[in-house]
TrEMBL record:
PANTHER family: PERIPLASMIC PROTEIN, PERIPLASMIC PROTEIN-RELATED. The lineage of its organism: Bacteria, Pseudomonadati, Pseudomonadota, Alphaproteobacteria, Hyphomicrobiales. InterPro entries: LprI-like_N (IPR009739). It holds the Pfam family LprI. It comes from the Bacteria. This is Uncharacterized protein YecT (DUF1311 family). Residues 112-124 have a biased composition (Basic and acidic residues). Residues 81-136 are annotated as: Disordered. Residues 18-116 form the Lysozyme inhibitor LprI-like N-terminal domain.
């Protein structure tokens, strides 16, 4: 399930030029957002694989919410918050609107990537500790 679809903020035929026209600057912001999304998707896939492996260790009869369900719910909520904070494109938003929205989303996406990466590392460390304690 892909949760990070990047809207088209710039024309695909326009190359990034940070000192160029507004459309070229929009292309730069769009490229930055795409890179941030790609990195987040990679870390999210790792986190999802880890969550699935942790779920496989739990009692299927348990009433606890699965790690996969918790991760999906948290990610969907993060997307809603990001989109509320950064806004949505509108017809009357002005020439810099696309750049501002894409830049905001890219920044928040990079922050979320680091947050997920940290949570994943903590989860892996806790799982390793639990395994080593269980083998003693």
């Amino acid at each position: 399930m892909l949760l990070f679809v990047t809207p088209a903020f710039a024309d695909d035929d326009v190359a990034c030029n940070p000192d160029g026209t507004q459309m070229e600057m929009n292309a730069c912001s769009s490229d930055d957002l795409q890179k941030a999304d790609d990195e987040l998707n990679a870390v999210y896939r790792e986190a999802m694989a880890f969550a699935k492996s942790e779920d496989a260790k739990t009692d299927p009869q348990s009433d606890d919410e699965s790690a996969v369900a918790i991760l999906k719910k948290a990610q969907r909520e993060w997307i809603r918050k990001r989109d509320r904070k950064c806004g949505q494109p509108t017809a009357d938003g002005g020439s810099m609107q696309s750049t501002e929205i894409a830049s905001c989303r890219a920044e928040l996406t990079q922050q979320r990537t680091e947050e997920l990466r940290s949570l994943l590392e903590d989860g892996r460390a806790a799982a390793a500790d639990a395994e080593s304690e269980g083998s003693n």
